[in-house]
Amino acid sequence: MSSRRSARLSAASLNGQEGIPAQKESTPPKVANISKKRKNPVEEAVSTLNNDEASPSTPRRKRVTKPLPHVTPTPSAIGLIAAPVGFGDMAPPPINRLTIPNASNATLVTPETHRVFANKPIDQVWPSKVSSVMTTSDNILEEAVAHLIKVEPKLQPLIEKHPCHMFSPEGLAEEIDPFMSLVSGIISQQVSGAAAKSIKAKFVALFNLEEPDVALHKFPKPSQVCSSKLETLRTAGLSQRKAEYVMGLAEKFHKGELTTSMLFNSSYEEVLEELIKVRGLGKWSVEMFACFGLKRMDVFSTGDLGVQRGMAVLAGKDVNKLKASKGGKWKYMSEKEMEEMAEKFRPYRTLFMWYTWKFADVDIISLPG
User: Fold this and answer.
1) pTM, rounded to two decimals
2) pLDDT tens for residues 227-245?
3) Which of 64, 186, 192, 205 has the fewest CB atoms found within 10 Å of its own CB?
4) Architecture of domain 76-292
5) Distance, CA of 138 to CA of 168 (rounded, Å)
């Protein structure tokens, strides 16, 4: 009996020293259901290893998504791709030249030496053959516009409101550096037009450190880019991957694997085949370069969501009610529908495509006819 009493007194003295009353043993607070709380990856691995009875789990399969059509940040991206070498009063005057809709009609310059590649001026054509020349840089845009309106009269108000400078005599006289044009296309990928413009300006500034006047900055030559480092290119705002793309493209030009002569004289199919081999240049980028860098009049891109939308509006569809097809690739029109509709605009499908981007923002109710 006395031993029990002494045990109780001993316990009381431990729980209530110096007159502090003993407290009841507190129950642990209820813990919220943490079954959904994500474990630390290391803890999760250790827990799995220590649990011999844990059943093996099959990792969840990643959903494979098909690439969606390119959402074109027009007109900013196209403006960068088509930007001429000269500026202000440095732009060369228009020269009336031979033009062919399904060939290059741009005035190209080599990025290293500024050698010019262009179609022959009319005054250098034999007098006996001048009378047989039908299309020149002075009238190709006029002929193209007339063809578009003849095929689809609904385009006339839009064409009259938005004349296309790129294929005008002045636009065709602008000197295009193909290296600059292709780099601009890479910079424009997956970013807004404003962001692309800012990154390009910073990129150019890296190679004009001794020129305080930004208006006088010159685009770098491929050899200059090759001599720089990826870390330096990234300070302009380029991602690691884009910096690698730009460096790789510069090496192609510097080594002569890509030349201005080849880009100017080759067929569209040959240009497409060669440029798609270059890392960082997808089909859309090459198509845009062919349209607005080489100024070929008969290029058409089915992989552009803006073109899809504009063509759907032109066809009289209510684009706000259309849903993406299975896989999400063709939201407004199928590829077959696009090709069939564009076929009748040959050989001026580039210009037709240019207007579909603008047509995409037009209310179908306001269209005549």
Assistant:
1) 0.75
2) 999 999 999 999 999 999 9
3) 64
4) Orthogonal Bundle (1.10)
5) 7
